[in-house]
Design goal:
Length: 365
């Protein structure tokens, strides 16, 4: 048996965070869905399954693909700007978003498409070999492959590589503590600011996401940025944007970067037009008026909406064109070269030069 064959056999991995019920079912305790499973059943995420009297993660060590991206694509604008990030995901998701922009991966029920395989140690090695500053668990939600992501994070940290989670933040308290303890940065989707949107459009609830945002910001050392995909007529009203950004300022803080990104018609929401750039710019103005200091626009070409300003003197410190860094006016301590004020985030003395490239990778076990 080859090493690859052995690793393939071991990809059905014991899962954490479950317990037996009195009626004989097993309940998954990873996320607020509390899926209750009979023998052979899978949770809504599709990748956590019951095998006998235990729960397993069926996608451990299996990926839908690997790619080197700019960190700004995650999007993270205050986490080692200009650096490259080694990105991968698996399949499945614990939300059911009708507007999913990665539905071919996150909604996949075909395990055969997960042709790329890599151990946590190999992921860390390739990231270091290719000069990536960090590894991102992305494309689909890493919460559902938490055991794999956490093991990969340990391997990355052993080699001096940072870790990034791109997630909807839909996770229970106990696994949340373990998961975010392994992450150096996270971009968490705040998909809307109404319970009705979450329930009707994602099949989930708003409150657990707000809990996760507050937990990560106030009880961990994980750097946090927030993204909201604005969908015309669904979550882009002035009233909702005002309430959301006031809540963020009060409960998360004025320095958390907030990204408003443009929707494009996809999956089960093809009858709605692409988000106009003017909508993102309007949302940005509302957020800035409510005291948020770092508000960005994404999925549109908007140089002003991609520029990082000093929170005090408002000088442009990091200018971007799409994902390429054109200007970097921070000193070695991450402070404004004009007034000396520290910029919130994680920074090197110079910006990375990765630019706008996207490099697909194949990784051998």
């Amino acid at each position: 048996m080859t090493a690859r064959d052995k690793f393939t056999e071991e990809t059905s991995h014991p899962a954490q965070w479950w317990h037996k019920l009195d009626d004989g079912r097993i309940q998954c305790d990873l996320c607020p869905r509390d899926c209750k499973l009979h023998e052979g059943q899978r949770g809504l995420c599709f990748v956590r399954a019951r095998e006998g009297d235990r729960m397993v993660l069926t996608t451990y060590g299996r990926s839908s693909g690997f790619c080197i991206d700019p960190i700004e694509k995650k999007p993270l604008n205050h986490f080692y700007p200009g650096s490259s990030v080694f990105s991968f995901g698996t399949a499945g998701c614990n939300l059911a978003c009708k507007f999913c922009q990665n539905w071919d991966i996150s909604k996949s029920r075909e395990m055969d498409r997960l042709m790329d395989q890599a151990s946590p140690e190999r992921i860390a090695e390739v990231a270091r070999e290719t000069g990536c500053r960090s590894v991102a668990f992305t494309y689909n939600d890493p919460v559902i492959f938490a055991e794999y992501a956490m093991d990969a994070a340990d391997a990355c940290h052993a080699l001096g590589v940072k870790t990034v989670a791109v997630t909807a933040g839909y996770i229970r308290a106990e696994p949340r503590r373990a998961f975010y303890d392994k992450m150096d940065a996270a971009n968490i989707d705040l998909k809307a600011f109404t319970e009705s949107f979450y329930f009707q459009q994602t099949g989930a609830h708003l409150a657990p996401v707000l809990d996760t945002l507050q937990y990560v910001q106030h009880e961990t050392g994980c750097w946090l940025e927030i993204t909201t995909l604005l969908i015309p007529g669904q979550n882009d009203s002035d009233a909702e944007l005002d309430a959301m950004t006031r809540w963020i300022a009060e409960h998360i803080g004025h320095d958390v970067p907030l990204h408003f990104t443009a929707f494009h018609p996809d999956y089960k929401m093809t009858d709605i037009e692409r988000t106009p750039a003017a909508t993102l710019q309007r949302a940005r103005r509302i957020a800035l008026a409510n005291g948020l200091r770092h508000v960005y626009t994404g999925n549109v070409h908007d140089r002003a909406g991609g520029t990082t300003h000093c929170a005090d003197c408002r000088a442009p410190l990091i200018e971007r064109d799409w994902h390429a860094v054109l200007r970097y006016d921070l000193d070695a301590e991450g402070a404004c070269r004009h007034c000396g004020s520290a910029l919130a985030g994680r920074f090197d003395a110079a910006a990375g030069g990765f630019g706008r490239r996207r490099i697909p990778m194949r990784v051998a076990v």
